[in-house]
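FAQ: What does the model actually see?

It sees only this:
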Amino acid sequence: MKIPRSDRKKARIEMIPLIDVTFQLLSFFIYVSLFMALQRGIPLKLPQADTAVQERAQALEVSLDARGAVFLEGEQVSLELLGEKLQAMASSRDTDRVILRGDRTVNYERIMEVLDKIRSSGLSKVSLEAQPRGGR
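And it is asked to produce this:
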């Protein structure tokens, strides 16, 4: 007995929708990675200054948030361990420069405590970060 053949097309996987989804995911991850690179992770309201300039080359970054918590390169550290960690990072990066970013509401005494720790760790070049007037 002969089996009748139908003229139906065989099922196949459509590639165009898969390619579309792949490009959408790729563009999403690129966008997120760029956004994360711009975001430093510590929300600060920097003070403003007329003479503020960008200074980034090989400097270590110490941040103080509004509560007075200390962050070294985005990682929270205690004030007691700040000096040791600064020395270790400075020797591994071969730098003696530190940029201190402090929220404008931080107590001046807290900033001086952090500056003392930076100086006692042997790092001599300390810059205070500010944003230009009319910025952010």
